Amino acid sequence: MYPTTDAPAAGLFVYDHVRALERRGLAVDVVAVHGRQSRTQYATALPALARRLRQGAFDLVHAQHTYSAMQVALAAALTRRRPRMLLTMHEGESFLSEGIRDPGADRIRQLVYSKRIKRWAAGLADHVVTVAPGLLETLSLHIPHTVIPPGVDVERFRPLERDACREKLGLPGAASIVFFPASPRRDFNKGYSEFMQAVSLLDFPVHAVTAGEIHPREMPLYMNAADVVVQASRFEASPMVVKEATACDRPLVSTDVGDVRDLSAGVRGCFICSRNPEDMAEKIAEALRFDGREPGGRARILERELTVQSVAERYIALYEQIAGHSR
Fold first, then answer.
1. Judging by DSSP bridges, how do beta strands 228-231 and 207-210 pair with one another?
2. How far apart are the first and last CA of the chain?
3. What is d(CA 109, CA 241) in angstroms, rounded to the nearest whole number?
4. Is the C-alpha dihedral spanning 160, 164, 167, 171 positive or negative?
5. In this structure, is the dihedral angle defined by the CA atoms of residues 7, 259, 222 and 247, taken in order, positive or negative?
6. Its pTM surpasses 0.85
7. Distance separating alpha carbons of residues 35 and 272, to the nearest angstrom
8. Cβ of 137: how many Cβ atoms within 10 Å?
9. Which domains does the chain have, with CATH numbers?
10. pLDDT in tens, 251-304
C-alpha cells in the first residue's frame, strides 16, 4: 500500500500520512513491498527489512497491513530484536461473512480473506488501530484498540468550479455526469456491473465516467466535474473515495460499507443504497436532483478532523504512548 510509477494511486493515503509526519519533524523510514508486482517480494524483502531494523535506531515500527505485521515479526526474529509495533488494519474484507472469497483471486490473494491470519497479526502488535469501528469485532477480537480513519488531503480535494473541470477533462458540459471512481476490473468488490445496470435503469440519459486509469492528480477534477459520485462496493473499511467526494462537496451514492453510514449521516446529498441495481438507480436519480447544491460533506470532514494533518497528530500521540516517551 504505497504509490509506484505503475500504480500511483496505490496506498496514496499512506504516502500522505508519511509526508504529514515529516512536516511535524518526525524521521520516517519507509519500507514498501510491492506485492502487486510480485508476491514473492513479501519473502525476498525480509533480509533488507531485517538489516534496517538492526542498523536503525527506531522507536517503533508502524505496519500498515496484516502482511506487513507478519514481515516485521519475521524480520525481528532474524535480528533477535523485537521493536515495538503499531499495526493499522485497513482490510475491509474483514466485514465479509466467513467463506466469501473473490473467485478470480489466486491462492495467495485468497489468504487476505483469512480471519485467522488477521487475528494472528493483531496479536503480534503492541497496539492495533482500525480504520473503521467494528472491524476487530468481525474477527472475534475484543482487545484494546484505537479507531483512526485515514485522513483526506483537503487542499487537493476541495470544491472546484464544475464547468471549468469538465472543460479541462474534455467532458460534455451539459450532460448529467455520474462518476464511478474505481477500476471496472475490480468487479467482485467494486461492483462495476451493478453500477452499469443501475445507470441503464435510469429513465433519462447520463454520461457515466469510470476510473481505473485516472492519475491521482486528476481525481479532484473528476470528482468536481461529476453531478454525483457512486461507490458500489461489496466491502470497504474507511473508503478514501467517499471522503474525497465529500471533501469536494459532491453528491454521493454509496453502499452501506465500513464507516460510510456514520460519516454521511445527516449530510444532505449523501445517499446510502444497496447493491441492488434498482435501488442504486433510485438513489442516483435522487442525488442528481440536487442540482449543484452543496451537500455539506466538506464541513463534516473538517468537523470530524479527518484531514491528513489532524490524523497525523492523533498518530503522533499514539506513537509516543507506544514508544514510552515523547519524540
1. unpaired
2. 26
3. 23
4. positive
5. negative
6. yes
7. 33
8. 12
9. 12-151+307-323 (3.40.50.2000), 162-303 (3.40.50.2000)
10. 999 999 999 999 999 998 999 999 999 999 999 999 999 765 677 899 999 999
The answer to whether 318 and 26 are in contact (CB under 8 A) is: no
Q: CA 39 to CA 36: how far, in whole Å?
A: 7
Q: If DSSP states are collapsed to H, E and C, what string results for the chain?
A: CCCCCCCCCCCHHHHHHHHHHHHCCCCCCCCCCCCCCCCCHHHHCHHHHHHHHHHCCCCCEEECCHHHHHHHHHHHHHHCCCCCEEEEECCHHHHCCCCCCCCCCCHHHHHHHCHHHHHHHHHHCCEEEECCCCHHHHCCCCCCEEECCCCECCCCCCCCCHHHHHHHHCCCCCCCEEEECCCCCCHHHHCHHHHHHHHHHCCCCCEEEECCCCCHHHHHHHHHHCCEEEECCCCCCCCHHHHHHHHCCCCEEEECCCCHHHHHCCCCCEEEECCCHHHHHHHHHHHHCCCCCCCCHHHHHHHCCCEHHHHHHHHHHHHHHHHCCCC
CB 191 within 8 A of CB 241: no
d(CA 146, CA 88) in angstroms, rounded, equals 9
Residue pLDDT, tens place only, 226-240: 999 999 999 999 999
Contact 140, 134 (CB under 8 A): no
Q: How many residues does the chain have?
A: 327
